[in-house]
Amino acid sequence: MNWKHKDLLDLDKLTAEEIKHILKTAAPMKEILARPNKKLPTLRGKSVVMLFYENSTRTRTSFETAAKILGADTSNIAVAQSSVSKGETLLDTAKTLQAMKVDLVVIRHGSSGAAEFLADELSAGVINGGDGQHAHPTQALLDFFTMQERLGELQGKKIVIVGDVLHSRVVRSNVLGLKKLGAEIVLVGPPTLLPSEMNYLGVKTSYDLDKELPGADAVMALRLQLERQQSGLFPSIREYSRLYGLSQERLRQTGKDTIIMHPGPMNRGVEITSDLADSVQSVIEEQVTNGVAIRMALIYLLIGGTGSVVD
Amino acid sequence: MLWIKNAYVIDPAQRLSGINDVLVKDGVIVKSAGSLQPADVLEALEAQRLDDVLQVEGEGKYLFPGLIDVHVHLREPGQEEKEDIRSGSRAAIKGGFTSILAMANTTPIVDNRALTEFVRLQGERAAMAKVYPIAAVTKGFLGKELVEMMDILDGGAVAFSDDGKGIQNAEMMRLALEYAKLAGCPIISHCEDDSLAGHGVMRKGEMSARLGLRGIPASAESVMVARDVLLTAETGGKLHIAHVSTKESVQIIREAKKMGVDVTAEVNPHHLIFTDQDVILTDASYKVNPPLPSAEDQIALLEGLLDGTIDMLATDHAPHTWEEKTRPFAEAPFGINALETVLAAVWQNLVLKGKITPDQVIALWSLNPARRFGLPGGTLRPGSQADLVLFDPEYREMISAETMETKSQNTPFLGQEMQGFPVMTIVGGKIRMAGRKLLDNKEEA
User: Fold this and answer.
1) Prediction ipTM score
2) Is B316 a catalytic residue?
3) Which of A190, A243, A288, B192 is most buried, with most CB under 10 Å away?
4) Regions of chain A where pLDDT drops below 70
5) What span, in angstroms and rounded, lies between the C-alpha atoms of A209 and B288?
6) A109 and B CB contact within 8 Å
7) What is the rounded distance in angstroms from the CA atom of residue B242 to the CA atom of residue B231?
8) What are phi and psi of B164, to 5 degrees?
9) pTM
10) Distance, CA of B250 to CA of B269 (rounded, Å)
11) C-alpha torsion sign, points B166, B172, B173, B177
């Protein structure tokens, strides 16, 4: 398949075939990750800029590792030390990056639409590393990759996603993609974190986790911002954990060898008990590894050439 | 002296709607009647020769009283880079507005007589549209102390409003309505409960969820509309509700009017033309406060406008610099610049689509505002001020930064060709715009 997109902003513009192509490309990337010498010359001479307006050491390091393995040069614009904190607008930053002739920009930003805004201004490729509450496509893709490794084809598989659906960009991108891949999705959370407008996603929503668990092939817990309790979105961590926290005991209700996922970082004992997070059912660490593979695949597809990357 | 011939004249105050001639002398309307002969004209104008009378051919065009916009932000003093009183009043003339009411949320806030007089005088110096100041209700918009309403009234204010901010303290609003009875003019309420609106940037609903933008629930407005209506009923004050945008608000106002509460309301054309479905994530031109409504709200707003629940149209002209609006949606300020595009927008989207008649538009945008705020104009009745607009429904214009008089570019219509523009605007008998060009020479009619 010839890759035709300049940017990866969300999964809505990708076809199921294109998503599968990314996952397929990630498989050999993962093999490279397992090699003792993890360095390819493929993207030698290409420059990738990490433009992170929000702190995210995990995502940034994952992208940086991916780019470096492929041989690209990476640089970081960490907002705290840059002109951005001196009042430079995103538009000016875009113009500066354009002038530096960079090949690819990975942006993480607190405002929805910031990645698209940047992509409109740059001739370089843009990967959305998370924008506001809007989208987080690379996280979704690494989730699909992980599920597919464990569960096989996702068509018809039941995926339960539980937690703060309202504020989660991970959910939005996951649902968009999983629907294209034919999975059955159930979103679960308290009404204040799963308000009726989330019905736009066109999937089943529920307030009752125990009712939805039977038959689930994968259960994904979302990270809970603990400060949401102060905003009155739920009464206490204790009650949240009682109603929506994942535990070994609760998971038995699925009646299957269900896999447990979490985008990280986890609040152990809140969204998930420690023993479950560290159990054989958990693929949370695998998700991190697969994150690098998926990002290698994307960087390669967006700025790489054709032909086989592994040879 | 001016003789406007064969125009389709609309004057709801006189129930005039048809081809007529209009005569102007010494800044006032002398006559509006069916086709006049030169002899009638000379007699009515008490003129000797026809050469002394400027004749304007109005065939194929509408002639109506100048539009009065009760909700405009001119940004002077303090934020002249966005707009100043001169550029704003020029934009008004270009758009067919002969009178505009300037909101008080400038820097500093217009909360005393000196600043009120400054705004009025700057309007007079610009000599374009008439500029009427609206002063703050509370000092510094802090919601704690009332302004000196009577002194400010002497300085030229025609109403009071903390617009841009809802008065959160209900007791303060009650006192304002009570005290303003002295002044006899309405308190204009920006109905927005801060605790409900939070840090939202568009209407809360499926579209805000889809775009991942924080939502403002409809209740942020309607809860306060209900509160203010109840306070007005209790105090017997006068209330005008700015920029109504939800179906619940319309319903509350409808009930209040039935109960005899002295309440009027306005709606912004952008709330009648766009819905939250039109919001584009990378275009902050669609970011307004109150936010663009749901489709259901929009239907209720139009119904309310047609059945008299909502009394007038108003632009909420809110200019911002290009730099401020060229930011990610959540970070850009709220507001659409409207004065120059709004009539064409209403014409294309509401009149030509048969949702509202030209006569209704004029009643809503000229007669009703004049009556509610006690302003001259609003009619072509002989003896009244000659504030007039000649409107060409066929005239087309490309909207661009170069053609606009406003300093701002924050309109969703930028780069679009629109249809239906004023081709002549007359204020107090003086032609301020002709052939889409502003005239600074104060030519006498």
Assistant:
1) 0.90
2) yes
3) B192
4) 80-87, 305-311
5) 38
6) yes
7) 16
8) 110, -15
9) 0.93
10) 15
11) negative
